[in-house]
Amino acid sequence: MEMATFTLSSRTINSLTQKTLPLLTKNTKPHFPFSLCLTLRASKSTLRAVSMSYDKELDAAKNAASLAARLCQKVQKALLQADVQSKSDKSPVTVADYGSQAVVSVVLQKELGSASFSLVAEEDSGDLRNEEGKATLQRIMKLVNETLASDGTYGTAPLSEEDVLAAIDSGRSEGGPSGQHWVLDPIDGTKGFLRGDQYAIALGLLDEGKVVLGVLACPNLPLSSLASHNLQDDQDKVGCLFYAQVGSGTYMQSLDGSTPTKVHVTDLDNPEEASFFESFEAAHSLHDLSSLIAKKLGVKAPPVRIDSQAKYGALSRGDGAIYLRFPHKGYREKIWDHAAGYLVVAEAGGVVSDAAGNPLDFSKGRYLDLHEGIIVTNKKLMPALLKAVKESLNEKASSL
């Protein structure tokens, strides 16, 4: 005799737990197996991960990231020196960073409601509230309103300066292990953006501390593989949207809405044939350490250096086999730099870990606690990569 199986939503389970279990303690005999009682008592996070669908959230995230990309493309096309400020940490920030964050915040709240909205994001409006930031704020407000109106869905009434500031500041959440938290890097790879190179709008969702969906909008990434892309050929289309939902795989489509295709990391098992990605900026990763690791693996191809989480997207579709990131001592990785990319690669069959092979933990707030760095590859190459990383780190430490 076959047993029927069914899936309960988290809301149904919570309701059953709250309403039914108390009755069992009031001299009532249970009318269902004890095993089901135990199931109903299971942790909410486990039940949520197994039974919850994030289709609505994923649709909202794709819309938000795509619209933010439209704003960024407009700014990059006609970048003025006045559009670039310098934050207190001296990294460049443009009206596109702020505008992108505002657009994503507005779209998510309009589509999903704002009652329990939580966003962990890179920017805040502090610099824009000063007298010196007034002109920049005006440009941001204009860009945001034009972008929302261009979609025809969200541009009902224009946002005021205060609305835009509030949308930017909605990203001040600290995240954590409980509840749902959106995680956003409004422009990952600002320096690449300013050079006219690669950048990404990276948006993920945490549920009970786990990344459950990820979206990467990569306006300058070719739709064809980087390995076959001809940089001189203007006919090659650019603009990719990668997205993944936990348990559902990773898909790619063009930013202008082509039919999605399911993607998968390379199944390469010979390290000598592997190509690897690393950060374009030497300040973002230790290139000498990456070179040592590549040498130990026998990798022959030179590294592909590109900015942003576009690397995660490219790796998820098999453009390369390995991504290495080893920040300089004292640097703390932020969750928005990896959350979306992590799930895009993981759902495409890849593995993302720290340098010791530990899984990434996004439940600790705005920062990741890591051993040394981050490594990304497929399951076949990971053992050899971990060994090479360990040996290289030991050699580097002994030479100091």
TrEMBL record:
Protein name: 3'(2'),5'-bisphosphate nucleotidase
Cofactor section: Mg(2+)
Annotated binding of Mg(2+), by residue: E122, D185, I187, D188, D337
EC number assigned by the record: 3.1.3.7
Keywords per UniProt: Hydrolase, Magnesium, Metal-binding, Multifunctional enzyme
Pfam families tied to this protein: Inositol_P
Pathway membership, UniProt: Signal transduction; phosphatidylinositol signaling pathway
Record flagged with keyword Hydrolase: yes
Record-level Gene Ontology MF annotations: 3'(2'),5'-bisphosphate nucleotidase activity; inositol-1,4-bisphosphate 1-phosphatase activity; metal ion binding
Its biological purpose: Converts adenosine 3'-phosphate 5'-phosphosulfate (PAPS) to adenosine 5'-phosphosulfate (APS) and 3'(2')-phosphoadenosine 5'-phosphate (PAP) to AMP.
Metal-binding as UniProt keyword: yes
Cross-referenced NCBIfam families: bisphos_HAL2
Sequence similarity: Belongs to the inositol monophosphatase superfamily.
Reactions mediated catalytically: 1D-myo-inositol 1,4-bisphosphate + H2O = 1D-myo-inositol 4-phosphate + phosphate; 3'-phosphoadenylyl sulfate + H2O = adenosine 5'-phosphosulfate + phosphate; adenosine 3',5'-bisphosphate + H2O = AMP + phosphate; adenosine 2',5'-bisphosphate + H2O = AMP + phosphate
Matching InterPro entries: DPNP (IPR006239), Inositol_monoP_metal-BS (IPR020583), Inositol_monoP_superfamily (IPR051090), Inositol_monophosphatase-like (IPR000760), Inositol_monophosphatase_CS (IPR020550)
Stretches that traverse the bilayer: none
SUPFAM superfamilies (UniProt xref): Carbohydrate phosphatase (SSF56655)
GO biological process: inositol phosphate metabolic process; phosphatidylinositol phosphate biosynthetic process; sulfate assimilation
